[in-house]
Design a protein that fits this description.
The chain has an 11-stranded mixed β-sheet. It has a domain of 277 residues: Amidase signature (AS) domain (Amidase signature (AS) enzymes). It has 15 helices and 11 strands. By secondary structure, it is of the alpha/beta class. The structure holds glutamine. Glutamine (GLN) binds next to loops.
Length: 487
């Protein structure tokens, strides 16, 4: 095995035992980036020089015998919609192509000085999409099969980790953008409870749905990243003021007596039978490991997608109004101010972003507000109540993460509805604000399949424990993408 193929916790042990240095690890990842980035295109910006400096500083600390944090010296990638002080943050949009934030997102501050950042990862423009094909620069590729997409919108964050171009990464999830790419690339992806992780410095897409979370190679690394980033932040008025548990304490291989619910509405028409088979097999395993299964109904699931595609664009149309060529970002020349606004926004936003701005503006406009936006909010409440009722009976819910495995590059890019349908299993979780994790649970035609485990609000611990128990009794997480096989 090569250093870039280890998990963060394995590397941390090697560091502690002084078998390798942070510089060794970082150099291995940087060399890997040089070797495969041309094929994978996971990054928009690489920060190789500062990464090496950070690694040297960690080694010096270890030499001095100082205590280091669990992610110290372990190279990570950051989705390029998370503000990084002095490092370009583009949101994969031409409108922010040269934007250098004068401040760090709270998650960057929390990760702290010891962490090694190797780059800013590609995404669908402003996180709108499910394949990274909407990136304003270029699509990323799936390291399991370069003719397929790595999912999205955090596709670059997932592709980087799957290819060995980072050991862990941060993504953001508004309707599935952490969990779906994690599923397509055989990784673990957690969307925390809304308010668990600060959104300060995350460039807003749909503020009532957005959350930052980890994409990692196993559940243990997921717990470590959560420990680093979770917690109340006075700079985010929607962050929740409660204590954060030590998530590594939830890494317990035991689900005896755990009540799992299987919502029948999540096994939708059009689902790949191989995906369904893998999920049903995983559920049988969880039962064999001591869980109690209840089949339940969440009747409003079928309306969640439509509600999301009104609420998210409505919020986006408002959030993206700030890109007007005045304060920051791209500015086109114009004859007068209105002409300048028009040209700036026409030239620099991509097709999908424009589509959402128009959908959202329409849904919010006078005369249509009640019929569309307000109605969608009411549906959101009904979806949330489905979860409340389900969690009176069960501890966690199990569903597929996505209806299929990774699809071909170009297959859905001309059909927005087909693309939106990939999110049917993940979107209700964002509407309800509850936490959800995707873990690998099988393969179909050599491509990974993801299982989603959904938990009660602020109960990330139970989904981590369930995920960990499943992982420890399987070895899907140990397989490396073929691109990653070292000959
Ligand atoms: N694919 C979904 C969308 O396009 C979700 C995106 C996300 O979670 N950022 O809106």
């Amino acid at each position: 095995m090569e250093l870039f193929q280890y998990t963060a916790h394995q590397l941390q042990n090697l560091l502690k035992d002084k078998e390798v240095s942070a510089v060794d690890i970082t150099k291995a990842v940087l060399a890997r980036m040089d070797a495969v980035e041309g094929d994978v295109k996971a990054y928009i910006t690489q920060t190789q020089d500062s990464a090496l400096e950070q690694a040297k500083a960690v080694d010096a600390k270890i030499q001095r015998g100082e205590v280091i944090s669990p992610l110290a010296g372990i190279p990570g990638a950051i989705k390029d919609n998370i503000c990084t002080l002095g490092i370009k943050t583009t949101c994969a949009s031409k409108i922010l192509a040269d934007f250098v934030p004068p401040y760090n997102a709270t998650v960057m501050e929390k990760l702290g000085q010891d962490t090694v950042f190797v780059g800013k990862a590609n995404l669908d423009e402003f996180a709108m999409g499910g394949s990274t094909e909407n990136s304003g620069f270029y699509p990323s590729r799936n390291p399991w099969d370069l003719t397929t997409v790595p999912g999205g919108s955090s596709g670059g964050s997932a592709a980087a980790v799957a290819a060995g171009e980072a050991i862990w990464s941060l993504g953001s999830d508004t309707g599935g953008s952490i969990r779906q790419p994690a599923a397509y690339t055989g990784l673990v992806g957690l969307k925390p409870t809304y308010g668990r992780v600060s959104r300060y410095g995350l460039v807003a897409f749909a503020s009532s749905l957005d959350q930052i979370g980890p994409i990692t190679r196993d559940v243990t690394d997921c717990a470590h990243v959560m420990n680093a980033i979770a917690g109340y932040d006075a700079k985010d008025s929607t962050s929740i003021k409660v204590d954060v548990p030590d998530y590594t304490k939830a890494l317990v291989n035991n689900i005896k007596g755990l009540k799992i619910g299987l919502p029948k509405e999540y096994f939708v028409a059009g689902m790949d039978p191989e995906v369904e088979k893998a999920i049903r097999n995983a559920i049988d395993q969880l039962v064999a490991l001591g869980a109690e299964l209840t089949e339940i109904s969440m009747p409003h699931t079928e309306y969640a997608l439509s509600a999301y595609y009104l609420i998210a664009p409505a919020e986006a149309s408002s959030n993206l109004a700030r890109y007007d060529g005045v304060g920051f970002g791209y500015r086109a020349a114009g004859n007068d101010i209105v002409d300048m606004y028009k040209k700036t926004r026409s030239q620099a936003f991509g097709t999908e972003v424009k589509r959402r701005i128009m959908l959202g503006t329409y849904a919010l406009s006078s005369g249509y507000y009640d019929a569309y936006y307000l109605r969608a909010l009411k549906v959101r409440t009904l979806v949330k109540q489905d979860f409340d009722r389900a969690f009176e009976k069960v501890d966690v819910l199990i569903t597929p993460t996505a209806p299929t495995t990774a699809f071909k590059v170009g297959e859905k890019s001309s059909d927005p509805l087909a693309m939106y349908l990939q999110d049917v299993c993940t979107i209700p979780v964002n509407l309800a604000g509850v936490p959800g994790i995707s873990i690998p649970c099988g393969f179909a035609n050599g491509l990974p399949i993801g299982m989603q485990i959904i938990g009660k609000p602020l109960d990330e611990e139970t989904i981590i424990r369930t995920a960990y128990t499943f992982e420890q009794n399987n070895d899907y997480h140990k397989r490396f993408a073929p691109l990653g096989e070292v000959k």
